[in-house]
Amino acid sequence: MFIPTIAALPDNVPFVAPEELERDRGTPFIARLGANESAFGISLKAEEALRAALNTSACSWYGDPLSHDLRTALSSRLEVPMDNLCVDAGIDSLLGLTVRLFLQPGDTLVTSGGAYPTVNYHALGAGGVVKAVPYNNHHEDTIALAEAAHQTSARLVYLANPDNPMGTQVSQEAIETLISQLPHNCTLLLDEAYIEFMPAQSSLPIRVGDANVVRFRTFSKAYGMAGMRIGYAIANERIIRGYDKIRNHFGVNRLAQIAAVASLQDDLILTRVINEVQHGRERVYALARSLELAYIPSATNFVAVDFGTQERATTVLKQLAECGVFLRKPMQPPQDQFIRIGVGTEAEHNSLSEALSALICQ
Amino acid sequence: MFIPTIAALPDNVPFVAPEELERDRGTPFIARLGANESAFGISLKAEEALRAALNTSACSWYGDPLSHDLRTALSSRLEVPMDNLCVDAGIDSLLGLTVRLFLQPGDTLVTSGGAYPTVNYHALGAGGVVKAVPYNNHHEDTIALAEAAHQTSARLVYLANPDNPMGTQVSQEAIETLISQLPHNCTLLLDEAYIEFMPAQSSLPIRVGDANVVRFRTFSKAYGMAGMRIGYAIANERIIRGYDKIRNHFGVNRLAQIAAVASLQDDLILTRVINEVQHGRERVYALARSLELAYIPSATNFVAVDFGTQERATTVLKQLAECGVFLRKPMQPPQDQFIRIGVGTEAEHNSLSEALSALICQ
User: How far A56 CA lies from chain B's nearest CA (Å)?
Assistant: First the structure.
């Protein structure tokens, strides 16, 4: 019925949703800390803009396919020409488009084993081959990524910085070296979903002249808009024109565009959320220490906490879910002995703390 | 840089947005009648649900990837099992997924010349070939579609019922015959975006046992939610599982899911909008008659009005835009002598009427 590439795909789903788990257990979670969402809401200016928009035709009119107002604001903020920006319905959607631009059936995408799986899902969906290299001490290994790219004549290399699910970051120099060592005709997909939580000086400067780098950013994390579906790519204008050839031009919803523009006009949102996240990470670190669990210092809004073995991590994850705490864990060894604990509200953290302490100390 | 299929694509865009035209002219339109959007807003229950949602984490939490609540409501409404429903970010997105399920480079999609162009855009984006057959007396020609499908060994046939841009409908019997005459391994894509405006008795009964039909519906038109991006496919469960292999599982925004569920709980919205649209069509018919212009009776929320020649239609379209009235017109002969006039609010219609009367009678 389907073309061979599709027929060969497994019936897999990248993630089971918390809503699905809630339906299974018959009651909502009391702490939703597993999907790397923001517990600190959207910008107050965005909320105000959304309330005002409900008095207009914002729901009934298609969104501007050029996202002109948002690209104007981003261009000014990032000091990048508008022709180097493509706004789409979140990084997941952009990753789906990207593999279709670059991968023919049989072409390789190189990534890290256990890194963000949605890029693999899309690469396989385009008939691509996924080559995964191991993490190095819980960091994505830029040297191994470059080597694997050469060995496989890869068309794409995926690197998330900061990383998900481990929360680590690699240096600007390491990324520079990776870019300089990419094979001919290979493009780096630099996923910066969590970049706002990383110290600014460690971020690679934007150089849109680079024809072999696409950077992905989102309003889902620090701006708290995961449910609204809006993100963007920063790249050489030739790559941006590629997106324009295949994207859903009317695919970004109008409320998301309105909220994103308003968020960029809000000087307080990032400071407030970054501050909350820093405090929240410290709370998770303190909880881990109090329970004699190791953890990986994080440059994101979640913390990978070490439960020693995959079996124990899996058991604890399940027990926490039974206590009403939704979390996820890395899927591949050796990271699969960790649980990824998202920064939540104080109330969510207290629920986690109580449940986890009871489990560990029982 | 890109794979050959993509490199060969033109830098084309299916539609120029009204916002882009407004930026060019430096001032907003006074009547937005060209994008087949609803002028009658969203359900009051949906608006209420959205306002309440802004007090929750609805913007910050990813939407349920299974759209469970919406599929439950649709299943009950349509008397179709949930496994036969796939919710996604609008019909455009579903069409993009569909061509990827069924078309390999070189495979053919059959459609009507001048019909909804986004399916062609996506088919070409997947490396497919588009074969277009002429309309028959402004109706999509189901006999010609079936013949062309056999001649080209097509994998997909696209039929919009009611049609866009002409607003005509074909009979249930004609569609039944088309389905029965499809070649082996060819699937009918039945786009029913405007179905709520069509007399119910003329709609083909849903038979999810048919393995060669996918029906597409949306909240964009009668439910007034074009800006929110949510629609669904009804199909055999094997096809639905295909969508699950490649769709963006977290791609439907949470507010759209909330508004769609609330809309289905609103007994008044459809009656109210269908009534408004019927009155609005009558207003357009009357305007056309008063100006001695022919028109095609419509089963949708727009009316194709005949300006005699392509040149005249193009000139009038441009002049109306200068007067602040946004419209679009069919792109291919012989339909390109028509202008597609959307049903608007009374104020929008009056602006159109005034401008058009002045142009025609000058």
Answer: 9
